[in-house]
Amino acid sequence: MFPTPIQKRPRSTQVAYQALVPVALILWLLPLIAVALFSIRPLADFSNGNYWGWPSSFELFTNYGRVFLESDMPRYLWNSVLITVPTVIGAVALSCMTGFALGIYRFRGNLLIFFMFIAGNFVPFQILMVPVRDLTVDLNLYDTKLGLVLFHVAFQTGFCTLFMRNFIRALPYELIEAARVEGVAEWRIFWYVVLPLMKPAIAALAVLIFTFIWNDYFWAVVLTQGPDAQPVTAGITSFNSQFVAQYHLMSAGSIVAALPPVAMFFLMQRHFIAGLTLGAVK
Amino acid sequence: MTVAVDLPPEQGWFRRNRMTLTPLLFLLPGVLFFAVYVVIPIFQSFYISTYEWNGLGELQEQGEFVGMGNYRELMGDRAFEVSLWNNVKWLALYLLAIPGGLFIALFLNQTVTGIRIYKSLFFFPFVLSQVVVGLVFSWFYLPREGLLNAALTLFGMEPINVLGDPTLATYGIIAAGLWPQTAYCMILYLTGLNAVDPEQIEAARLDGAKGWRMLWHVVIPQLRPATFIAFVVTIIGALRSFDLISVMTNGGPFGSTRVLSFYMFEKALSEYGFRMGYGSAIAVVLFLIMLVFIAYFLWSMWREEREARR
């Protein structure tokens, strides 16, 4: 193990390390802690210039209550859910199929198609912006959730295919050959042999794509406007102009907007990290 | 093949060609979606960049063909030059996330009680959306209310207005971007460190290697896969920077924080006008820069694929 395990060091070093880690963590998260502290202060503190002293009162429930009751925030959050969940299902479904085709079969152009997915996944969004916006307008899907979902599914299929194909490649190929010898139809091999083995990959991808899509801002701005279809990342801008300079409410609003992927991460940590570090350990 | 004889003819044809047909059918929906929304639009953008077009009506009817005109205009555009230069700064400074992430990973790669919770708390800025990171940091930098200036004053230094100063603003935004990116690199390295061969470490230790020499000659070479992925995601992240700029400064002050991705959006879709052709030309330049890196990534992956086949 590198660096040398702290247990092999003198007692004083161990104590110093144990003390240093929490201090480093607080410094690391300082900007965020500041926002969290802002979000429980009353407005009066800001007008009195009491930014960092002891709060004159704790307004956790008032501030967060106002975010939910006096703004469009709940609508934006719900839009985000309605955009994110179908995208996750669509992208994972499509990439299970493409990953299976590219991971199991040998045919001419296999690697070419695979590399097309990878390359497309790295492209800057701006090169797609004008044509995708045009296409969405032509399909009468501008400013709808469906318009965003369709694009996200298509784009995420690139990354998901990379992930799924590599995962399927690492499965024991003998299983598939054995099934073929038994005369099992190819689609049955997919459904009954490969798919059950892909569960960890599906979980990892689902968590990862959920976070990516929930946090998307660029496409939300390009393909939607207004509270009918906008997800929370774009909605927070209008939220902030509604409560301009009221830092306690703006802080509370951005914490609410950030919470779902954070919760997802802490609940599904193992899958999340398995997804992110794909290939880093092989 | 004897099996096929017992089957009805049409099923027989499908069965005989199943090794070609199955992958084709499985690929079809994914490839179709990807082609319509990703591959074809890339070529369309190249095409649109040769037009002057405000995005209304059909390109061929309402737009005016200008050939390389948009690109010639870019050459003399001061704002384009500033954006391009800022992209270079982003690329160079964003790479600091890699050593930064490695440093934190080495710091946290211990087995003391509660270390798992510390690791996830160090990582979690990456899960926040860039919009929230942008807001958090713009409040952190606020001249009066911000924590940064509160700390500076505490240590007896002059307060600074990071985002209001044209020479500082871009660096302020990059610092905000480095926060989640470093967390990402850290998690890559933590996983990589887990896979480092303990026997090699022990052998090197017996040979008297330790500290920096051990890190440089024994550990870092074994972390190559993690470093490659960290490099890929950091380069892509640097060139994609848009959200932070849009949220923190909206390109200002005086356009000093624009990058190509942001300038393109401004030209094509914001209140500064709907110049789709000119915007597409900027996007093409950005795409070509990215293409250099994409080609390198694909080449590395292709080499690996070839080795895996042997």
TrEMBL record, chain A:
PANTHER family: ABC TRANSPORTER PERMEASE PROTEIN MG189-RELATED-RELATED, SN-GLYCEROL-3-PHOSPHATE TRANSPORT SYSTEM PERMEASE PROTEIN UGPE. Part of the ABC transporter complex UgpBAEC involved in sn-glycerol-3-phosphate (G3P) import. Probably responsible for the translocation of the substrate across the membrane. It comes from the Bacteria. The gene is ugpE. CDD domains: TM_PBP2. Keywords: Cell inner membrane, Cell membrane, Membrane, Transmembrane, Transmembrane helix, Transport. One of its GO terms (cellular component) is plasma membrane. The chain crosses the membrane at residues 20-40, 76-104, 111-129, 149-168, 189-214, 247-268. This is sn-glycerol-3-phosphate transport system permease protein UgpE. It is found in: Cell inner membrane; Cell membrane. It is a multi-pass membrane protein. Belongs to the binding-protein-dependent transport system permease family. InterPro entries: MetI-like, MetI-like_sf. Residues 77-268 form the ABC transmembrane type-1 domain. Its main location: membrane. The complex is composed of two ATP-binding proteins (UgpC), two transmembrane proteins (UgpA and UgpE) and a solute-binding protein (UgpB). PROSITE patterns: ABC_TM1. One of its GO terms (biological process) is transmembrane transport.
TrEMBL record, chain B:
This is ABC transporter permease. It holds the Pfam family BPD_transp_1. Its main location: membrane. It is a multi-pass membrane protein. GO terms for cellular component: plasma membrane. The chain crosses the membrane at residues 24-48, 90-109, 121-142, 168-193, 214-239, 278-299. It comes from Pseudoponticoccus marisrubri. It is found in: Cell membrane.
